[in-house]
């Protein structure tokens, strides 16, 4: 089976990264200035020791690089919810703070005579705790502010996705009209109706024309950026299949496996159309025997699972037309739902072609 996914994008320096770099440098600089101001207000022999300024500068640079290292690790979690992101950052910050404390004590031991003059052991518990706390507040505050910035960045991304999804959905609808309502499709449908009238089967011809009118009306008026109830989407595909079953009365049949609880779920309008038409076009084109088209839906906890399968011998691996529409549908799902949606399609184990769609289960409040 083939799974749709975006191309892996290289890590690039974003505006959010730049803001975090500035924030990190500012926090540790403020922390260093605070210590320097304290030493000026309360002068001591320690502050007059040779190497103290150099040790503090080394500690400042270390703090900046360790915190930026945290960001490099955490930036891959920018799609995570704000509170979850903060707690992960805070947990990582506890470890980073301990590393910084140890390195800070090392700098002062190597660059100053404090440990020798005071007679204290390296990493004395009292100093470790005091230093750890002094380093902890900037890291935790940094984590909180970064979580807020990540939330804002997620909101901007979602707005951008929504805008892009609207544009892509509109293009998908126009592409659907070009691919699904081609002149030969209308000609074949009208020709089938004309043949039925000539055979004295006016009622069946009338049913075809009514279904064709309903299908065209739904396709032309559906707002592609909006969500519709799954039962409405299934009804739309039912109109389309009614027409195709009349055109291929001995070669096409349908099988619906629809869980009642799933029918109230909200899905993107016309999301099933390219998969249903793909199965009919390529399934029938490559099969001599009749085929059965299966459309299924079920709820799995907070997830909605949809599938379209046929038992024909077609591979549906065309590189243009409907084959491209499958990839476009996957892109549309990603733009609307992000990583919460998945699309897989490919040859089925039992034979034929199968498409599996998984979405968040959402209903109208």
Could you explain the architecture of this structure?
This protein has 365 residues and is an alpha+beta fold. It contains eleven helices and eight strands. It has helices at residues 15-41, 45-48, 52-74, 82-111, 114-118, 125-180, 183-198, 202-221, 230-247, 273-285, 322-337; strands spanning 2-3, 227-229, 252-258, 266-268, 291-300, 303-310, 342-347, 353-360. It has a six-stranded mixed β-sheet, covered by helices on one side. The protein has a two-stranded antiparallel ribbon with strand order 2-4. Strand 5 (291-300) and strand 6 form a beta hairpin. The protein is rod-shaped and about 110 Å long. It starts with a strand and ends in a 5-residue tail after the last strand. Residues 5-10 and 316-322 have low confidence and may be disordered.
In the predicted model, the low-confidence regions spanning at least 5 consecutive residues are: 5-10, 316-322
Query: Assembly type of the shown chains?
Result: single chain
User: How many H/I helices?
Assistant: 11
SSE arrangement, N to C: EHHHHHHHHEHEEHEEHEE
End-to-end separation: 35 Å
User: How many beta-strand segments?
Assistant: 8
Measured by DSSP, the beta-strand proportion falls in: 5-15%
Rg, Å, rounded: 32 Å
The percent of residues in helical segments reads 55-70%
Q: Could you give the order of strands across the largest sheet?
A: 1-7-8-6-5-3
The helix/strand class is alpha+beta
- Outline: rod-shaped
Q: Overall mean pLDDT score? A: 78
Instruction: Give the biggest sheet.
Output: 6 strands, mixed
Task: Give keywords.
single chain, 365 residues, alpha+beta, six-stranded mixed β-sheet, rod-shaped
């Amino acid at each position: 089976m083939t799974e749709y996914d975006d191309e892996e994008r290289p890590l690039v320096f974003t505006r959010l990264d730049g803001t975090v770099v500035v924030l990190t440098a500012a926090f540790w600089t403020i922390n260093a200035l605070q210590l320097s101001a304290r030493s000026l207000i309360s002068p001591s022999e320690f502050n007059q020791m040779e190497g103290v300024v150099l040790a503090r500068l080394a500690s400042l640079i270390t703090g900046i690089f360790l915190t930026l290292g945290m960001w490099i690790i955490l930036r891959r979690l920018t799609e995570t919810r704000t509170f979850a992101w903060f707690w992960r950052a805070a947990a990582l910050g506890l470890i980073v703070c301990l590393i910084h404390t140890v390195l800070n004590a090392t700098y002062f031991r190597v660059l100053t005579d404090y440990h020798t003059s005071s007679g204290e052991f390296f990493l004395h518990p009292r100093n470790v705790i005091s230093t750890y706390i002094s380093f902890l507040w900037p890291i935790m505050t940094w984590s909180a502010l970064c979580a807020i910035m990540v939330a804002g960045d997620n909101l901007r991304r979602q707005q951008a996705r929504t805008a892009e999804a609207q544009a892509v959905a509109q293009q998908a609808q126009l592409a659907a009209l070009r691919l699904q309502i081609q002149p030969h499709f209308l000609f074949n449908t009208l020709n089938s109706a004309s043949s039925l009238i000539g055979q004295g089967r006016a009622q069946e011809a009338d049913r075809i024309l009514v279904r064709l009118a309903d299908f065209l009306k739904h396709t032309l008026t559906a707002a592609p950026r909006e969500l519709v109830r799954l039962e409405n989407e299934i009804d739309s595909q039912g109109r389309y299949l009614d027409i195709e079953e009349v055109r291929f009365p001995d070669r096409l049949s349908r099988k619906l496996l629809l869980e009642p609880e799933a029918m109230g779920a909200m899905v993107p309008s016309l999301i099933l159309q390219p998969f249903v038409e793909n199965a009919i076009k390529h399934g029938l084109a490559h099969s001599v025997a009749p085929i059965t088209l299966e459309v299924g839906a079920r709820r799995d906890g907070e997830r909605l699972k949809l599938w379209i399968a046929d038992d024909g011998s077609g591979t549906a691996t065309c590189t243009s037309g409907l084959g491209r529409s499958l990839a476009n549908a996957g892109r549309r799902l990603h733009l609307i739902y992000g990583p919460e949606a998945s699309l897989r399609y490919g040859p089925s184990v039992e034979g034929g072609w199968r498409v599996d769609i998984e979405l968040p289960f959402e209903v109208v409040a």
